[in-house]
Amino acid sequence: MNIAELQDVCKEYPAFRLNKVSFALEEGKITGFIGRNGAGKTTTIKSMLNLIHTSGGEIRYFGMPLAGHEKEIKQRIGYSTGTVSWYPRKTIREIVAVTKTFYPNWDEAAYRRYLAFFGLDESKKPIELSEGMKVKFNLLLALSHRAEVLILDEPTSGLDPFSRDELLDLFGELKAHGVTILFSTHITSDLEKCADNIVYISKGEIRAFRPREDFMRENGRPGETLEEIFLRLEKEARA
């Protein structure tokens, strides 16, 4: 079953076009979203959250169009970027106190569990956090209201290798509980560890949407890693 679907999604900018982007997120699966800087990953993710207005196409969650059902849908999804865009001089405790009023499904026990898991101090302010801890704070908020879908833009950005491994293990646990995850990343080795599906975007167009093993078999050469495949495809596209 597909939890989320994009069909022919377009967005026009003066110097860039997102061109008929179509793919789906399978329930309880992890989908890795790859592409070089400027390929359209963040524009696609913002479109999925109605943070920008698309110029064509349709986005659906749980069988419902995002247009007209945004409030209901956003109660059931979580979103995180690689950076924190909250009030930098408010404490985590203060920010959370406001944030949870927007979510009837806020799970205080889950919040406390992830707070301890990520090693975050509620008395700290975002301005006092390292880049890695800012990522963890954003994820903390996304995970604390029982989201059925997580849409994550560069969630491992700024994390050290040990913290990245912990986070990938967490993704596996969430998947086992039926949570659907889309995450973009430049660290393709992370996708080799946990991704079920791969969406590859280049110059605003989806070039591939496949199960990870199929993507590597169809596009790879003997012995190539996912990173090596991605780099070669990008070089070939520029040739």
Look at the structure and give the CATH class of the domain at 2-76 and 148-238: Alpha Beta
Q: Report the total helices.
A: 9
The tally of strands reads: 10
Largest sheet: 6 strands, mixed
User: What is the CATH H-level superfamily of the domain at 2-76 and 148-238?
Assistant: P-loop containing nucleotide triphosphate hydrolases
CATH fold type of the domain at 2-76 and 148-238: Rossmann fold
Strand content: 25-35%
- Tell me, rounded to a whole number, the average pLDDT: 92
**Biggest sheet, strands in spatial order?**
6-7-8-3-9-10
Topology as a string of helices (H) and strands (E): EEEHEEHEHHHEHEHEEHH
- Class computed from helices, strands and strand pairing: alpha/beta
Rounded to an integer in angstroms, the radius of gyration calculated over CA atoms is 18 Å
CATH architecture of the domain at 2-76 and 148-238: 3-Layer(aba) Sandwich
